[in-house]
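Batch manifest, entry 17 of 40.
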Amino acid sequence: MTAASLAAANAAGVGLGSSLGAGLGAGAAATQQTGFVSELEINDFPQHSRWKVTHRQTLAGVTELTGAAITVRGTYVEPGKAPPDGDRKLFLLIEGPSEQAVRQAKAEIKRVVEECAEKALRRDVPTAGGRYSVM
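Output type: C-alpha coordinates
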Protein backbone atom coordinates (compact mmCIF):
# COMPACT_ATOMS: atom_id res chain seq x y z
CA MET A 1 0.00 0.00 0.00
CA THR A 2 1.38 3.36 -0.94
CA ALA A 3 0.96 6.69 0.80
CA ALA A 4 -0.90 7.92 -2.28
CA SER A 5 -3.52 5.16 -2.05
CA LEU A 6 -3.99 5.83 1.68
CA ALA A 7 -4.36 9.55 0.97
CA ALA A 8 -6.88 8.74 -1.77
CA ALA A 9 -8.90 6.63 0.68
CA ASN A 10 -8.89 9.51 3.17
CA ALA A 11 -9.90 12.01 0.47
CA ALA A 12 -12.75 9.76 -0.61
CA GLY A 13 -14.23 10.15 2.86
CA VAL A 14 -13.53 6.65 4.05
CA GLY A 15 -13.65 6.85 7.85
CA LEU A 16 -10.61 5.40 9.55
CA GLY A 17 -11.17 4.51 13.21
CA SER A 18 -9.02 6.26 15.76
CA SER A 19 -10.13 4.91 19.11
CA LEU A 20 -10.48 1.60 20.87
CA GLY A 21 -14.23 1.93 20.96
CA ALA A 22 -14.58 2.49 17.21
CA GLY A 23 -16.19 -0.42 15.44
CA LEU A 24 -14.50 -1.89 12.43
CA GLY A 25 -17.38 -0.88 10.16
CA ALA A 26 -16.44 2.75 10.63
CA GLY A 27 -12.77 1.98 11.17
CA ALA A 28 -11.84 -0.16 8.19
CA ALA A 29 -11.40 0.89 4.63
CA ALA A 30 -11.23 -1.52 1.74
CA THR A 31 -8.23 -0.74 -0.40
CA GLN A 32 -8.02 -1.63 -4.05
CA GLN A 33 -4.86 -3.72 -3.85
CA THR A 34 -4.03 -5.04 -0.41
CA GLY A 35 -7.26 -5.67 1.46
CA PHE A 36 -8.45 -3.73 4.49
CA VAL A 37 -6.89 -0.87 6.46
CA SER A 38 -7.69 0.56 9.87
CA GLU A 39 -6.00 3.03 12.21
CA LEU A 40 -5.86 2.97 15.99
CA GLU A 41 -4.65 6.09 17.78
CA ILE A 42 -2.43 5.18 20.73
CA ASN A 43 -1.00 8.59 21.59
CA ASP A 44 -3.19 9.07 24.67
CA PHE A 45 -2.65 5.60 26.16
CA PRO A 46 -0.51 5.32 29.32
CA GLN A 47 3.23 5.14 28.62
CA HIS A 48 3.60 1.46 29.50
CA SER A 49 0.65 0.51 27.26
CA ARG A 50 2.10 2.53 24.35
CA TRP A 51 5.45 0.82 24.82
CA LYS A 52 3.88 -2.63 24.98
CA VAL A 53 1.74 -2.28 21.83
CA THR A 54 4.63 -0.80 19.84
CA HIS A 55 7.17 -3.40 21.00
CA ARG A 56 8.47 -5.60 18.20
CA GLN A 57 7.63 -8.86 19.96
CA THR A 58 4.00 -7.82 20.59
CA LEU A 59 3.52 -6.65 17.00
CA ALA A 60 5.05 -9.86 15.63
CA GLY A 61 2.73 -11.94 17.82
CA VAL A 62 -0.36 -10.08 16.63
CA THR A 63 0.78 -10.35 13.02
CA GLU A 64 1.40 -14.08 13.38
CA LEU A 65 -1.98 -14.61 15.06
CA THR A 66 -4.09 -12.55 12.66
CA GLY A 67 -2.16 -12.19 9.41
CA ALA A 68 -2.52 -8.39 9.59
CA ALA A 69 0.51 -6.13 9.20
CA ILE A 70 0.88 -3.42 11.86
CA THR A 71 2.95 -0.28 11.40
CA VAL A 72 3.64 2.41 14.00
CA ARG A 73 3.10 5.88 12.54
CA GLY A 74 3.07 9.46 13.78
CA THR A 75 4.89 10.97 16.73
CA TYR A 76 4.07 11.18 20.42
CA VAL A 77 2.40 14.46 21.33
CA GLU A 78 2.10 15.46 24.99
CA PRO A 79 -1.44 15.94 26.35
CA GLY A 80 -2.82 19.41 25.69
CA LYS A 81 -0.42 20.13 22.84
CA ALA A 82 -1.09 20.09 19.12
CA PRO A 83 0.95 17.89 16.78
CA PRO A 84 3.58 19.66 14.65
CA ASP A 85 2.53 20.82 11.20
CA GLY A 86 2.32 17.98 8.73
CA ASP A 87 2.51 15.34 11.45
CA ARG A 88 -0.06 13.27 13.33
CA LYS A 89 -0.38 11.85 16.82
CA LEU A 90 1.04 8.37 17.42
CA PHE A 91 -1.14 5.64 15.88
CA LEU A 92 -1.03 2.08 14.58
CA LEU A 93 -1.80 1.40 10.93
CA ILE A 94 -3.36 -2.06 10.64
CA GLU A 95 -3.47 -3.65 7.16
CA GLY A 96 -4.92 -7.06 6.49
CA PRO A 97 -6.13 -9.31 3.70
CA SER A 98 -9.65 -9.40 5.13
CA GLU A 99 -11.92 -7.36 7.35
CA GLN A 100 -11.88 -10.23 9.87
CA ALA A 101 -8.05 -10.16 10.09
CA VAL A 102 -8.06 -6.40 10.76
CA ARG A 103 -10.87 -6.73 13.30
CA GLN A 104 -9.04 -9.56 15.09
CA ALA A 105 -5.76 -7.59 15.16
CA LYS A 106 -7.54 -4.56 16.61
CA ALA A 107 -9.20 -6.74 19.27
CA GLU A 108 -5.86 -8.31 20.20
CA ILE A 109 -4.23 -4.89 20.56
CA LYS A 110 -7.14 -3.78 22.73
CA ARG A 111 -6.66 -6.88 24.90
CA VAL A 112 -2.96 -6.08 25.36
CA VAL A 113 -3.75 -2.48 26.35
CA GLU A 114 -6.39 -3.60 28.86
CA GLU A 115 -3.98 -6.18 30.30
CA CYS A 116 -1.32 -3.49 30.80
CA ALA A 117 -3.82 -1.17 32.47
CA GLU A 118 -4.99 -3.94 34.80
CA LYS A 119 -1.40 -4.78 35.79
CA ALA A 120 -0.71 -1.11 36.48
CA LEU A 121 -3.76 -0.88 38.73
CA ARG A 122 -2.77 -4.00 40.67
CA ARG A 123 0.78 -2.73 41.05
CA ASP A 124 -0.40 0.64 42.45
CA VAL A 125 -2.74 -0.88 45.07
CA PRO A 126 -0.99 -1.46 48.40
CA THR A 127 -1.23 -4.98 49.77
CA ALA A 128 -2.74 -5.64 53.19
CA GLY A 129 -0.71 -7.28 55.93
CA GLY A 130 2.64 -5.56 55.74
CA ARG A 131 5.52 -6.21 58.08
CA TYR A 132 4.77 -3.32 60.40
CA SER A 133 1.56 -2.12 61.98
CA VAL A 134 0.56 1.42 62.82
CA MET A 135 -0.40 1.90 66.47
